[in-house]
TrEMBL record, chains A, B:
Keyword DNA-binding annotated: yes
Name by which UniProt lists this protein: MerR family transcriptional regulator
UniProt source species: Alkalibacillus haloalkaliphilus
Keyword RNA-binding belongs to the record: no
Alphabetical list of SMART domains matching this protein: HTH_MERR (SM00422)
Single Gene Ontology MF annotation: DNA binding
DNA sequence: TTTACCATTTACGTTAACGTTAAGTTCAAC
DNA sequence: GTTGAACTTAACGTTAACGTAAATGGTAAA
């Protein structure tokens, strides 16, 4: 009924249970517990884990990821709170945009480099 | 005359000299030495450091970066060698492309999330 | 030639992000 | 009710990527 155990989540995301417990340890997740103390995960935590792993893949460390996860987890009620959240979120989006641009530059440079090799290969094959 | 000391490079790239020595230690750089054993860096190493820091910024570890740096450093002479280098390089470009795509997806999701907050803010301000 | 700075190697220290082991608890099935 | 898999916490271990300290050497200015 929409509750997952820690090993189910671990299998889903192909990580160890230790990893998930560690994420709770550092405040990235706060799963509820059942009567006997076992963690109960829901779709909320699944979504958060998605964000975490995507962030990790792109060089953000857990502290940075934590900020982003918490940003989208808390329900900012009140105008001032909302405004600050939006501003912070737009900053984060800017960071991501910058990373994308620089990755594209990196890609371009790699393509230029390969072009040289391509030309050399053509030279060799024309003989 | 186009030779830089280790501390000049460190200042240029805003890292410690230890970092640069470490990169040599793990095989990312192979600077020449002068008579008294001091490292002599040239534009070649400057270019390699550029690649290294950009790679780091986007979540590649030093091992992966090493592959890429060595790929573009060695002069693949001979048709077979050239072909393999080109193929490997295209794989790496593919990886970068994938990262770009997923970063863009990440950005989209963040923008959607923020849109919700924006709407809530508008609701509050219409009253 | 002594001061001072830059270089060198060696080697131990540090932090993030887990891995691993141990010792105990709970649940599901038989 | 006993067995076995899955859960719990606690705590020590591991690796990458450096930081830092110590001991030493070259060189240029005072």
């Amino acid at each position: 009924m929409s509750h997952y155990s820690i090993s189910e989540l671990a299998a889903q995301f192909n990580v160890s249970t230790r990893t998930i417990r560690y994420y709770e340890e550092v405040g990235l997740l706060q799963p509820k517990r059942n009567k006997s103390g076992h963690r109960q995960f829901t779709k909320k935590e699944m979504t958060q884990l998605q964000l975490i792993f995507r962030g990790k893949k792109y060089g953000f460390n857990l502290e940075e990821i934590k900020e982003m996860v918490l940003l989208f987890e808390e329900d900012p009620t009140g105008k001032e709170q909302l405004k600050r959240t939006i501003e912070y979120g737009e900053d984060k989006i800017h960071e991501v945009s910058k990373r994308i641009q620089e990755l594209e530059q990196m890609k371009n440079e790699m393509e230029q480099f390969l072009q040289v090799f391509h030309d050399e290969l053509n030279q060799l094959e024309e003989e």
